[in-house]
Amino acid sequence: MSERFKIASKEKRVINFVIDLFAVQFILVLFLLIGGIIVSFWIKEKGIIYETSNSFPFLSIYMLYYVIAEHFFNKTLGKRFTKTKVVNIDGSKPSLEQIVMRSVSRFIIIEIISYFKDRPIGWHDKLSKTLVIEDHS
Q1: Are 131 and 86 in contact (CB under 8 A)?
Q2: Which among 97, 95, 86 has a CA at the least distance from the CA of 130?
Q3: Which end of the chain, C or N, has fewer beta carbons within 10 A?
Q4: What is the pLDDT of residues 2-21, one digit of tens each?
Q5: pTM of the full predicted structure?
């Protein structure tokens, strides 16, 4: 498996995480600004009260960011920066189901513990049967 391609290092995985977290935060701010403007006009016009959970927009955008980026491009902004990509364990393009599983698995609260081993393969990698590898294309 790893003989055909090189698994991304822990350092690259951390850089991917940090860049992607900033990207999700940026998208969230845009979403909240645009949504807030639209909702405030709607509230003024309709005279109603609008309430939402603080975590719902973040979790939704977080999921959509990873599913869209990894399904269509095999990489997020972080992976573009570090020249890595997500693949099926055989090196092929992962299915949409694998990418969704991978994205949902990121919500496991103690998932970060899976990176304390020698190999930088997280639970979201194992559960979805995917890997993050060096991308030399």
Answers
A1: yes
A2: 86
A3: C
A4: 457 899 998 999 999 999 99
A5: 0.79
Cα diameter, the chain: 63
Beta strands in the chain (DSSP E): 84-88, 130-134
Residue 104: burial class (beta carbons within 10 Å; 0-12, 13-18, 19+): middle
Are the CB atoms for 43 and 50 separated by under 8 Å?
yes
Helix axes 96-105, 55-73, angle to 10 degrees: 140
CB 8 within 8 A of CB 122: no
8 in Cβ contact with 132 (< 8 Å): yes
**Measured between alpha carbons, how far is residue 102 from residues 44, 45, 98 in Å?**
41, 42, 6
Using one digit for the tens of pLDDT, what is the confidence trace for 98-121? Answer: 999 999 998 888 887 887 777 778
Q: Provide CB contacts within 8 A for 101, sequence distance 6+.
A: 124, 127, 128
